[in-house]
Amino acid sequence: MTGIFDDLKDYGHEQVSFFHDEETGLKAIIGIHSTVLGPALGGCRMWKYADDQEALRDVLRLSRGMTYKAAVAGLNLGGGKAVVVADSRTDKNEALLKSFGRAVDAVGGRYITAEDVGMTVSDIDTIRTVTRHAVGGSNEGGSGDPSDMTALGVFQGIKAALKVSGQGEKLEGVKIAIQGVGNVGYHLCSYLSAAGAKLIITDIYPNQVKKVEQEFGAEVVAPDQIYSVDCDIFAPCALGAILNSRTIPQLKCSIVAGSANNQLEKDEDGFTLFSKGITYAPDYAINSGGLINVAAELDGYNKEKVLNKVTQIYTTIENILEHSKKEHVPPHQAADALAEKRLKEARKQTPNTSFGFRSQFMTDTKIMSELTAASLN
Ligand code: NAD
Predict the structure, then answer these.
(1) Which residues are paired to 113 by β-bridges?
(2) Is 7's pLDDT higher than 90?
(3) What is the four-CA torsion angle of 70, 75, 78, 82, rounded to 10 degrees?
């Protein structure tokens, strides 16, 4: 493949490994963006990509995102991701999953896999039979489905965004439009409803809509109406790239805060939101609850510690938004600055250790003290 090292340089990757298994038909790519803060943890996406270039681009983009997510969440983890080129509905079987598991094992612990699109908790259980470098399963101390913890983190982030934008942090009577009421969206509705918020929901899956409508008394709108509903907060919990030049002009909210990955179609969309005075809680910072949950397995899963760390997403979002206000930079840039600062300091403290883990010097206390507005200056 021509230009591969140019791609690695542009995205800043350490390692990209391609795997092919004649016997099972496995075609997989593992992208390790950075191990500066620790082993690279990130889910595996099973997707029928149009071509190899599309699969490579996706793994490069997603694994880099994981570096930033882990850094901002204060975890001693690097960023990685894997893609398996296959249709999860028709091609997935035990042999393929085990073959992928052996590929993960071959990377020797520099990459730890988990669920992503097209993969389930039980798939991780299968993968775990051939490698210990997999988290998010249900066996052997596995933490299972992370979506509740992701939703709890988003709930905390919403409260922080309300506070920083001067609206107090009470959710009583606050109108929230939720796009996508699947795993995360459903749990988020549950937290918001208990706090007294008024829910407006949409989903393309009618059964899911009915369930949330009945359980939480939510108002339902059609998928294409969700951007323009009269609301205080828009919570994207379905797809990426939904903040763009077509949707932003329709928004009536003052805050965007939801779980979806890669919400901004382009970097400039973050600037547009900022110039319109819409507070945007950066996606990878507010949706890190799931990562925090699976990462906890590496130290022996402890629910109380996880809840404590997920609750700290409030402080992370508060600090990012305060910094954005103070320095007049859009929140997505403030989040990037926080992540890059942490990575820079780690490199400075243990230079010339390419491909080794440099995380050990970072204690939790130090990490949390870094998550202050001052550290961004
Ligand atoms: P999910 O598949 O369970 O739910 C997504 C829901 O969105 C589905 O019900 C789907 O029908 C709906 N949807 C799809 N297209 C839609 C559209 N055009 N309009 C309205 N609804 C639409 O996924 P999830 O696990 O709840 O994740 C939701 C988002 O959060 C994804 O972007 C995911 O990448 C991100 N995320 C999830 C986690 C997690 O722990 N599950 C962690 C971090 C980020």
Answers:
(1) 134
(2) no
(3) -60
pLDDT of residue 3: 83
List the catalytic residue out of 27, 69, 81, 309: 81
Q: What is the mean pLDDT of residues 217-238?
A: 98
Point out which residues pair with 115 in neighbouring strands. 44
Question: Is 341 one of the catalytic residues?
Answer: no
pLDDT at 169: 83
pTM: 0.92
Q: How far, in Å, from the CA of 128 to the mean position of ligand 1? A: 25
Amino acid at 113: T
Task: Compute the C-alpha angle 12/16/22, nearest 5°.
Answer: 165
Distance (Å) from CA 367 to ligand 1 centroid: 30
Residue 245 and residue 272: Cα distance in Å, rounded?
9
Structure confidence by residue, pLDDT tens digits, 35-60? 999 999 999 999 999 999 999 999 99
CB 111 within 8 A of CB 141: no
Q: What is the pLDDT of residues 15-30, one digit of tens each?
A: 999 999 999 999 999 9
Helix (H) or strand (E) holding 289: helix 289-295
Tokens of 318: 């508060």
Residue 362: both structure tokens together = 């970072």
Residues 30 and 114: beta-carbon distance below 8 Å? no
Pocket of ligand 1 (CB under 6 A): 146-147, 150, 179-185, 202-205, 208, 223, 237-239, 259-261, 287, 290
